[in-house]
Amino acid sequence: MATSHLLAAAVTSSSSSAAFRRPLRRLSPPPLSLTLSRRRPFPVVRAADADAKETTKPKAPEKAPAAGSSFNQLLGIKGAKEESNIWKIRLQLTKPVTWPPLVWGVLCGAAASGNFQWTVEDVAKSIVCMLMSGPCLTGYTQTINDWYDRDIDAINEPYRPIPSGAISENEVCSQLRVITQIWVLLLAGLGLGALLDVWAGHDYPIIFYLALGGSLLSYIYSAPPLKLKQNGWIGNFALGASYIGLPWWAGQALFGTLTPDIVVLTCLYSIAGLGIAIVNDFKSIEGDRTLGLQSLPVAFGMDTAKWICVGAIDITQLSVAGYLLSTGKLYYALALLGLTIPQVILQFQYFLKDPVKYDVKYQASAQPFFVFGLLVTALATSH
């Protein structure tokens, strides 16, 4: 299914006042139903490695910084400007900065099919598939995630619409806006999936079922009781599969046949997606620890987690290069190897030195090599 950017702040109370504090309850209303109760305080959860006697309560700022960037606000990333236009806030909820990997995944799937032609019809089909995967279903995923993560976003991403106060969680109208947006994006994505099946002449609605399965995965990733993101291994692999496997499958099914070997190959590549997802966990470590999310940096510590991260990325690509070589695709294997080497160099230059400080710089410099490696692999499988 994602690249994303978190802040942290926590407040601890003294032992004398904690003894008389009334217990706080976790706020977790379902996203697709309306709750009319008044706003309750954010939950207090013990961190896995924190002092057992300490409790923490996140505080959200009342507003996003007024001096922020309008461009960042539209993309849904750090440094967002305070905004009152409801349509811009709705767009921010969908976090457009996370759409491009899904769009690229559809492109790779179309290339892997070997049947894509530069005709008006094929280009139109691919654009519709990209709209389904990016703005609709990724937008749905991000909106769901914002709703259920409003407590942790108050620590990690206080500029997001809900913790910043741009959308008030205790107002009926604001709740209706979020719930309506979730349903509209979900139904639009499923509708486009069904349309693509008809357009492609499928006897079995495979794209619709891929969209439906991806939507369910997105829901259980963010929502209790499963909330896959609470476990660093399961949650990050689900995220990697959503951003690499699902859009690839949709693109390939649209123009060709989705074969078992491609499913296995893209699932393997999703392990690299797990590593990329871990990159974003480092700057969220304080909020994750505070609210009990067992991300890999929380569970293993930063030093171990950063090696798990680069290992997942590099070993996966080397394994895929070995697979391509074993199937007689020498030049494609060498091309993938050539695209992996700069990533390793950049990992040592930036990420392994300080995964928090150099997070953005590393991703901006290394990810282009990774995504072109995906395309090389797709082209190799098409021949």
UniProtKB/TrEMBL annotation:
Its main location: plastid. GO terms for molecular function: chlorophyll synthetase activity. One of its GO terms (cellular component) is chloroplast membrane. It is an enzyme of class 2 (transferase). Keywords: Chlorophyll biosynthesis, Chloroplast, Membrane, Plastid, Transferase, Transit peptide, Transmembrane, Transmembrane helix. The chain crosses the membrane at residues 178-199, 206-221, 233-250, 262-279, 332-352. Residues 1-21 have a biased composition (Low complexity). It is a multi-pass membrane protein. One of its GO terms (biological process) is chlorophyll biosynthetic process. This is Chlorophyll synthase, chloroplastic. Residues 48-62 have a biased composition (Basic and acidic residues). Gene3D superfamilies: UbiA prenyltransferase.
